Amino acid sequence: MKKAETWRVEVAYATPRRQEVVEITAPPGTTIEQAIRESGMLERFPEIDLAQHRVGIFGEVARLHDPVHDGDRIEIYRPLLADPKEVRRRRAKTASGRNKPDAGKKRD
């Protein structure tokens, strides 16, 4: 009798203070959502809402119904708190103010 094939899959989630990676075994055909649920990540981090959080495999955005493969690392991404373009714009504006010839001088 042939042993059923299973794959090793990692599920990862990180907060600013903590990162957790859980390895599970999953049969072929398992979806990303099924693997996340099987990992127990939703119980460890109740703030995860799969309707809101994006997911990916090795840094590439994926969908919950995409199948996993042996050796995959599923990542659950936290929502952005700030728009990266706006943050860069503010940083550039601040930096350009410091580079002006009379920047930093006291005005009377």
Automatic annotation (TrEMBL):
What protein family does this chain belong to? Belongs to the UPF0125 (RnfH) family.
Q: Which Gene3D superfamilies match?
A: RnfH-like (3.10.20.280)
Q: Which InterPro entries match?
A: Mopterin_synth/thiamin_S_b, RnfH, RnfH_sf
* Pfam families recorded: Ub-RnfH
- Protein's name according to its UniProt entry: UPF0125 protein A3A87_08830
* Basic and acidic residues composition bias: residue spans: 99-108
Segments of this protein annotated with the region Disordered: 85-108
Task: Tell me the organism.
Answer: Candidatus Muproteobacteria bacterium RIFCSPLOWO2_01_FULL_60_18
